[in-house]
UniProtKB/TrEMBL annotation:
Recorded superkingdom: Bacteria
Protein name as it appears in the record: Trigger factor
NCBIfam families in the cross-refs: tig
Function as written in the Swiss-Prot or TrEMBL entry: Involved in protein export. Acts as a chaperone by maintaining the newly synthesized protein in an open conformation. Functions as a peptidyl-prolyl cis-trans isomerase.
Length: 456
């Protein structure tokens, strides 16, 4: 087999392959065997007819088709391996010559990972928020804890934000009752914003046994996107009474003996949370800085595929009814052109991010251990509320196990960049991210530029 690689652009190649018939004997043997089992020939048992008899019966064409269809994918993979071509996506293959008894020639156009040069990681500098815990924030955490031990008491006054009410709901659209919207005895916290738009304003000011009609746009069900007239009736109004924040409460709600010890523990917990938030902010800002200073030619077909996936996912929510989807966009004050522009921008950024991090992972020889892959699978399974075994099974069926592996590897690659970047808070202090991302490498490494070959 002979093959050549022709670079059409920094992100696309044409691979030209020529295969002599001598190399295709195993393919012909399998083709004759397969066709012999499918063709009934008088005087021969199924699968036992000689090759020359099969050929005289069905002609040479079907045999060549079978050989070509089987051989080309294998020879394509052999060609990209020999040429060390790191491909992206599926190739567009064209048979350019078929000389029976002599050779087959075909070409394959495919996107490739471009050459990428990333900056020295130590030259990346970002600023994150100060790590500051206020007494008000500690008080808020304490109030949330007190709320868990609070009791509800009825009051005879109009409902206010923060009150708990029992309500009945009903709705109509153009006089037609919306059955799925009817409910009674529903408990709701006024001002929480956890129900349909406009309900908090409607309930506020109502006393027990009073009702009000308001208009809102339904977001689900048969009448999604249409205006509905909703009637809300308040049955009861209750207020939450909180226990006093004293030593007795500290002993009730925690392992501490005094309220001061409890407050100190809440402050420590808040500090850990804010350190984590600082780390996430640093990671995101370092990635943005990395992408901003790194030139990446984008593979056109890969971007197009990413755009199509994102559009498909958006319309899928509306049962692929594009008219309904456009109505939804209009209700959000957006146009279809604006949506398409946003999707294009997001897709390009996603592809660029993957290419850069994959390149860094290659250059840094980033590996993913079984434990790291298992941790990600368990985390994802918990997010979807299923068992890890079921998540793995679904991932295998959808061909996503490789994507999970790649995501973990990219995350580790990004962590290696964050470790070496300069991260300071708004007050100018260096931020120690060692707890989240591990220790920094030697300074010499931070100053060295990273040259990346073609990425896969």
């Amino acid at each position: 087999m002979k093959s050549t690689v022709e670079h059409l652009s920094p992100t696309r190649v044409r691979i030209n392959v020529e295969v002599p018939f001598d190399e295709l004997k195993p393919n012909f043997d399998r083709a004759y065997k397969k066709l012999a089992s499918q063709v009934r020939i008088p005087g021969f048992r199924p699968g036992k007819a000689p090759a020359r008899v099969i050929e005289s019966r069905i002609g040479r064409g079907p045999i060549l088709d079978e050989v070509v269809n089987e051989a080309i994918p294998a020879k394509y993979m052999e060609a990209i391996t020999e040429g060390e071509v790191r491909t992206l996506g599926q190739p567009a293959i064209e048979v350019t010559k078929l000389e029976d008894g002599d050779h087959i020639a075909f070409s394959a156009e495919v996107d490739i990972r471009p050459d990428i040069t990333v900056p020295a990681f130590g030259e990346l500098a970002v600023t994150v928020d100060d790590l500051e815990i206020t007494d008000a924030e500690v008080d808020e955490q304490l109030d949330e804890l007190r709320a868990r031990f609070g009791t509800l008491a009825g009051v005879e006054r109009p409902a206010e934000s923060g009150d708990f009410v029992s309500i009945d709901l009903s709705a109509t659209v153009n006089g037609t009752e919306v059955e799925e919207a009817n409910t009674s005895g529903l408990s709701y916290e006024v001002g929480s914003g956890e129900m349909i738009e406009g309900i908090d304003e409607a309930i506020t000011g109502l006393s027990a046994e009073e009702e009000r009609v308001f208009t809102t746009k339904l977001v689900a069900g048969e009448f999604a996107g249409e205006d509905a007239q909703v009637t809300v009736k308040v049955n009861t109004v209750k207020v939450r009474e909180l226990p006093e924040p004293d030593d007795e409460f500290a002993q009730l709600a925690s392992e501490f003996d005094t309220i001061d010890e409890l407050r100190a523990d809440l402050r420590e917990r808040l500090t850990r949370v804010k350190k984590m938030q600082q780390g996430v902010q640093a990671r995101d800002k370092v990635l943005e800085a990395l992408l901003e200073v790194t030139e990446v030619p984008l593979p056109e077909k890969v971007v197009e595929s990413e755009v199509e996936v994102r559009k498909h996912d958006a319309v899928h929510t509306f049962d692929h009814d594009e008219a309904r989807f456009e109505e939804f966009l209009t209700s959000q004050g957006r146009t279809l052109d604006e949506f398409n522009g946003e999707v294009q921008e997001e897709a390009e950024k996603a592809v660029k991010t993957q290419l850069v991090l994959d390149s860094i992972a290659d250059a840094e020889n980033v590996n993913v251990s079984d434990n790291e892959l298992t941790e990600r699978i368990i985390y994802q399974a918990q997010r979807f509320g299923i068992s890890p075994d079921e998540y793995v099974q679904r991932a295998q069926q959808s061909g996503q196990l490789g994507a999970i592996f790649a995501d973990v590897r990219r995350g580790k690659a990004l962590a290696s960049v964050v470790r070496l970047a300069v991260v300071t808070d708004e007050s100018g202090n260096n931020v120690d991210l060692e707890e989240l991302f591990g220790p920094r490498e030697a300074e010499a490494v931070a100053d060295a530029p990273v040259e990346v070959e073609e990425a896969k």
